[in-house]
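Async update (no meeting this week)

Hi team, since we skipped the sync, here's where things stand on the single-chain job. The sequence we agreed to prioritize is pasted below, unchanged from the tracker. I ran it this morning and attached the output directly underneath so nobody has to dig for it. Comments welcome in thread, and please keep replies under the output.
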Amino acid sequence: MNSGLYLDDEMKDASPTNFCMGIAGYPEKHFEAPNLYSDMKWLKAKVDAGADYIVTQMFFDNKKYFEFVDLCRKNDINVPIIPGLKILSSRAQLIALPKIFHIDLPQDLFVELEKCKDDKAVKEIGIKWCIEQSKELKKAGVPCLHYYTMGTSDSTKRVAKEVF
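Output:
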């Protein structure tokens, strides 16, 4: 398609596209992968098959993102790796997100969130945490930031205003 070649031989005036493909990457290892080596092997196969970039699963510890990028580079995975960030917005997410997405919440974040009396307080800490995460990632020169909004666009707007 990017060369203007299509499977439909009867297509007239076909023009090249600017099509690209992104894939998922897991800084904390995909839960179905038996180990990190296997996870890297399959990630590299997806990149070798033509993926143009990687968007990561959400994470709350930038160190895990940086280690993931380093590991990718060591495995000759050299496409842009876009960090995926989630803004915490409710106490229920303290249990649900790690369980559903197989991710860790850093201890210092968890300790602050445990003190929260309601979801409004959790949301404020979640916004502040994401702002700091975003600033650190941006300073490190990430290609861009991806926010998993999941119905919390107002929080994402607040983060974006602080970061950009």
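Quick observations from my side:
The chain has a mean pLDDT of 93.
DSSP finds six helices and four strands in the chain.
Reply here if anything looks off.
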